[in-house]
Amino acid sequence: MRPETAEPESLKPETAPPVVETHCHLDLEAYAGDRREVIRRARQAGVVGFVNVGFNLESSVRSVALAREHPDFWAAVGIHPHDAREASPEALARLRDLSAEARVVAIGEIGLDYYRDLSPRPEQREAFRRQLRLARELRKPVIIHDRDAHDEVLKILEEEAAGLTVVLHCFSGDAAMAARCLEMGYFIALGGAVTFGNGQRAREVAAMMPLDRLLLETDSPYLSPDPCRGQRNEPARVALVARKVAEVKGMDVARVARDTTRTAARALGLSGLAARRSG
Ligand code: NI
Questions:
Q1: How far is the CA of 9 from the centre of ligand 1 (A)?
Q2: Cβ(209)–Cβ(217) below 8 Å
Q3: For residue 24, how far is its CA from the centre of ligand 1 (angstroms)?
Q4: pLDDT digit string (tens) for 41-79?
Q5: Which of the chain's termini has less CB crowding within 10 Å, N or C?
């Protein structure tokens, strides 16, 4: 039986291999006018699962609402380093409550952003550590945002993330850092950067990453891949990321899609995904 929500008549598995969009922000105002259309296009392009990721309390609540509404959506809840000052004990208690929902699969996105520095760094570090401790308490995976803070992110993960499933989203380190992450047992998610003219570093990471540790994402509405760079991004374009990763690895795109889908399901515990995929 195919579930009605997967719009099976428009899914063309032979041209669009099933793939998981492991990081998007479809709750944002940017999709207020056409959210359903954006979701429909993604399903048509082969997206069989979406992880909508919170970046503050409000967006975490909205992410959970999307996951309630759509059976192919899961949510992550967390406070981004830009909003670090929001990470009060009360806010963390709220995240703990939200996490009780079965479709909340991770704490994220959390981490450090030393590129834009929208929050003082000591506050960023404190919010990051607190949420890692929350994830450990809840035994949930974590989705990490790291911008120009590689060494410190890895140091804090080593100190606070023992036993946790760690996904480094929108990975911006080099192949040496990726190797270090592999050694630590972490997962890496790649997005539009692998398609950019100046994305050589991301392509080097794609080339060396085993598929059982690699996730695909778009970070919509940000970071739209070539040839749509600069536009509002959307999850359908995760197919462009899959295609580029396959090209870099010299592999069939169907294999990259299949294996990264398995990896996403395993890393994030996307229960029900396999049933829908084979439906
Ligand atoms: Ni994001």
A1: 31
A2: no
A3: 6
A4: 999 999 999 999 999 999 999 999 999 999 999 999 999
A5: N
Name the residue ranges covered by the structural domains of the chain: 13-278
Which is the CATH superfamily of the domain at 13-278? Metal-dependent hydrolases (3.20.20.140)
| Cα 142 to middle of ligand 1, angstroms | 13
Question: How many whole angstroms from 199 Cα to the centroid of ligand 1?
Answer: 18
Q: What spacing in Å lies between the alpha carbon of 1 and ligand 1's midpoint?
A: 34
Ligand 1 center to 53 CA (angstroms):
7
125: helix, coil or strand?
A: helix
Number of residues in the chain: 279
Given a cut of 70, whether residue 215 has pLDDT beyond it is yes
d(C-alpha 151, C-alpha 259), whole Å: 29
Our CA dihedral for 93, 94, 99, 105, rounded to 10 degrees, sits at -110
Q: How far is the CA of 263 from the centre of ligand 1 (A)?
A: 19
Name every residue whose Cβ is closer than 8 Å to that of residue 134 and which is 6 or more positions away in sequence. 92, 95, 96, 107
Residue 210 Cα to ligand 1 midpoint, Å, equals 23
What is the average pLDDT value for the chain, to the nearest integer? 93
